[in-house]
Amino acid sequence: MGFERSNRLKELPPYLFQELDRLKVEVQSRGIDVIDLGVGDPDLPTPSHIVEALREAVKDPSTHRYPSYSGMNDFRDCVARWYEKRFGVQLNPSKEVITLIGSKEGIAHIHLAFVNPGDVVLVPSPAYPVYHSGTVLAGGKSYFMPLKAENNFLPDLDSIPPSVASQAKMMFINYPNNPTGATAEGDFFEKVVAFAKKYEIIVCHDAAYSEMSFDGYRPMSFLEIKGAKDVGIEFHSLSKTYNMTGWRIGFAVGHSEVIGGLGQVKSNIDSGAFNAIQRAAIVALEGDQSCVKEMQYIYQERRDVLVEGLKSVGLNPYVPKATFYVWCPVPEGTTSTGFAMTLLREAGIVTTPGNGFGEPGEGYIRMALTVSKERVAEAVERIRRLFRN
Ligand SMILES: *Cc1c(COP(=O)(O)O)cnc(C)c1O
To answer: CA-to-CA distance for 249 and 101, rounded, in angstroms?
Structure first.
C-alpha cells in the first residue's frame, strides 16, 4: 500500500547533492582514494576533558530522568556568563536563554512559533538549507535575499521591496557565513536592527561559527548592537567550536518572548537535551579554552595550504577570516555542478556545488577544511595535475 506524502514535504526543495553522492560512491568503488571536502563536520575528536565530564555526569542517576524543557538552570546560567564574558552582552538566564538539541533543532522549529501559512520569511541565498525548509514546514513563503560577491555576501536590505518587507514575519542571517565564509560587522547589524524595527520583523541570527576564526579575528554577536535584543535572537552551537556535532547541544538567546515562543513549540515536541550532555557542555564553555585555540590554528594552516594552492593554479578563492569553508569561483565556462563533477571524477575530490545552497550560489564551489593539512596538500597536488592537462 502506498501513502502519499504531505504537500509540505513535496514542497521542500529536491536533494541537489544526490547525483554527487552517487558519483562519489561510484568513484570510490573504482578503488580511487577520495578526499572529501564536502561535509561541514569536524574531523577531530571532542577534547578529552569534555568527554571525561560526560563520563562523570552520566554516572550520576539524577541525569537519567527527563530534563527540563527549557534546559538546566546551571547550563543557562553558564550561557549567560559566557555571553557576558565573550561579548559583553547581559542576559537573563531564566527568560532569555533556552537549551537546544543542536542549533539546527531550534532553527527548524522557530518558524512554528511565529509564522502563519502564507507569511513571508526573509531567507539568505546561498544558505544553510534549514532556514528555508523550516519556512516550508510551517506553511510560510521564503523571500530569498541573494548574497552577492559585490556586497561582500551580505544581503542588500534596500533592495527588498517594502511590500515584501511589510509582510515579513522573520529574517534569517548567518555570520560568519556558511557557505561563503563571509563575516559581518556592526554597521551591517545596525542596518538589520533598523530594518527589523521599521517592519516589525523577528531577526534570527545564526552564530554557529562565532568561535571558529583566524588571524586573531573575533566575530561579534548580533546582540552587541543597541536595540538588537528588542528585535531578535541568536542561535549558537557547541558542534563546530568543540567538535561536538554528534552530541546535539546548542542554545538560543535574546528577546524573551521569541525565546518563549520557541520554548512553547519545543515543549510540545521534544523533552529537552540530556542533562549529562548539558553538564559536559558547561565544562566545554567554562573550562580551558586552549582546545579552541588549537583548533583555530589547525584550520588556519589547512586554509592557507588550500588557498595558496588554488591561487597557484589560477583560481580565485575567497580567503575566509572565519568558518572552515573556502568559497571559490569556478573556472570560466563551467558551472558549479560541472566543476564539482570534474574534481570528483578526474581528481577524486569531493566538493559542494554552490548552487546546492540556492541559485545565487551558482558559479561557486564550497570546500570544507575537514581533512588533515597533508590531505589538503594532496588535494592541491591533484588539482594542479588536473589543470596541467
Ligand atoms: C553546522 C551548522 C549549524 C548546526 O549546528 P548544530 O548545532 O549541530 O545543529 C547551524 N548553522 C549553520 C550555518 C551550520 O553550518
So the answer is: 5
Residue type, position 140, single letter: G
Q: How far apart are CA 216 and CA 312, in angstroms?
A: 25
pLDDT digits (tens, 9 = 90+) for 298-356: 999 999 999 999 999 999 999 999 999 999 999 999 999 999 999 999 999 999 999 99
d(CA 376, CA 35): 8
Q: What is the CATH number of the domain that holds 82?
A: 3.40.640.10
* Residue 107 alpha carbon to ligand 1 centre in Å: 9
* Residues 329 and 221 reside in one and the same domain: no
Nearest ligand 1 atom to the CA of 178 is: 13
Q: How far apart are the first and last CA of the chain?
A: 53
Task: Tell me how far the alpha carbon of residue 168 lies from the centroid of ligand 1, in angstroms.
Answer: 24
Å from CA of 146 to ligand 1 middle: 20
Single out the residue in 269, 286, 303 at which a domain terminates: 286
Ligand 1 binding site (Cβ under 6 Å of any ligand atom): 40, 102-104, 128, 174, 178, 206, 208, 237, 239-240, 245, 250
Atom of ligand 1 nearest to the CA of 128: 13
Specify the pTM: 0.97
Identify whether 4 is part of a domain.
no
